[in-house]
Amino acid sequence: MNVMVIGRGGREHSIALKLSESDKVEKIFAAPGNAGMEAVAKRVAIEETDTAGLIGFANEHAVDLTIVGPENPLMDGVVDAFQEKGLKAFGPSKAAAILEGSKQFAKDLMKTYEVPTAAYQVFNDADAAKAYIEQQGAPIVVKADGLAAGKGVVVAETVAEAQRAVDDMLVEGQFGEASNEIVIEEFLTGEEFSLMAFVNGEDVYPMIPSQDHKRAYDGDRGPNTGGMGAYAPVPFLTDSEIGVAVERILKPIAKAMVKEDRPFTGILYAGLIQTEQGPQVIEFNARFGDPEVQVVLPLMKNDLVQVIEDVLNGEDPQLEWEDAHCAGVVLASAGYPGSYQKGVAIPAIEVSNGAWIVHAGTKRLEQGFVSDGGRVLLAAAKGDRLSDALDTVYASLNPLDFHDDFFYRTDIGKGALRSSLTEK
């Protein structure tokens, strides 16, 4: 088969790496891809949102399957367009991708179908939003309704911080149209985790859970980012608790989307929090999480193409997982998630003990790789124990002199390591 991956980040590099293990795959195309993907895929100079160009390429090069990585082309209806031309694409339709594209839609859906989530209100008027915050108190969560690249969420510790977030989003238009409306939510206490699943209509096939680290700096300080590192599986969750999340959240949402005439096919991502009352939903995404996919897919024994074919054909893919742990740590440009400089030379990272590098925001010049984004790359490794995987990752990163150009968190997975449930 010829397979095309749409996207250019770490998520898409991870998908391409997994595809490269498949005996069913002859050629992998990445549109537009990144410099690090060239070892396993042929890059195609077509933007993710150039639907006509992508369809033309798929036809010309006999692409048998297209996997859509990022959210924007999904919201633009790229899967619908492919299917209308008789081309196979894996991802939700435009109608179903609204589950990620509008937080208000997702919250209203959960309320209607009694899926556990935080109490909330939706606002487009700053004064009304501030009055609500004053009434509710802090901590409290302020979210841009639309897509904001993982940065449209403020977990405010004080009323003043929450009200500044309201001004940034509604008055200053920090995220453009994405923050024309905002969702203000109750703050939930507990451990956050991510649970992804392959979905086709009401059929839900969950993957192993993972835990992302959203805040920029050690100790969960600083602004939210697209993710600074992750690990899988999650030691503080029992099989029973994972089962509850599947039965009370993933399956009901899949059924709800069918009832709403928005059947979901693709990757359903649930950002969850384990509270004293059980798991509750923080957010839904309509695609693989990044960086979660970078630590989940390496532990999946199955052929990814076979899994997708099974799911699309309504068959159980019989997912199997390694009895191991995987961890990944993001190297980011100084200043991220705010303004940062591109084109900075990236020191050569010598990986060992089975570690590997996933490229995200990189570009290749004659002198080597340079930065081309906020999250530059991710160093990953597997191990029999989570501590082993993390030790291997940090052994690759720690000796390097990044000066003031890059940074990474030094405490990814440390909370899990403190748990008595961590080591098997």
From TrEMBL:
UniProt signal peptide:
none
Query: What protein does this entry describe?
Result: Phosphoribosylamine--glycine ligase
A Pfam match = GARS_C
- SMART domains xref list: GARS_A (SM01209), GARS_C (SM01210)
Q: Does the keyword Manganese apply?
A: no
Q: Which gene encodes it?
A: purD
The scientific name of the source species is Thalassobacillus hwangdonensis
User: Under which pathway is this protein filed?
Assistant: Purine metabolism; IMP biosynthesis via de novo pathway; N(1)-(5-phospho-D-ribosyl)glycinamide from 5-phospho-alpha-D-ribose 1-diphosphate: step 2/2
**InterPro entries reported for this sequence:** ATP-grasp, ATP_grasp_subdomain_1, PreATP-grasp_dom_sf, PRibGlycinamid_synth_ATP-grasp, PRibGlycinamide_synth, PRibGlycinamide_synth_C-dom, PRibGlycinamide_synth_C_sf, PRibGlycinamide_synth_CS
State a single Gene Ontology molecular function.
phosphoribosylamine-glycine ligase activity
Which cofactors, if any, are listed as required?
A: Mg(2+); Mn(2+)
Domain ATP-grasp: from-to ranges: 107-313
Catalytic activities: 5-phospho-beta-D-ribosylamine + glycine + ATP = N(1)-(5-phospho-beta-D-ribosyl)glycinamide + ADP + phosphate + H(+)
Q: What is its EC number?
A: 6.3.4.13
Its family?
A: Belongs to the GARS family.
Keyword line? ATP-binding, Ligase, Nucleotide-binding, Purine biosynthesis
The kind of enzyme this is, by top-level EC class, is ligase
Is-annotated flag, keyword tRNA processing? Answer: no
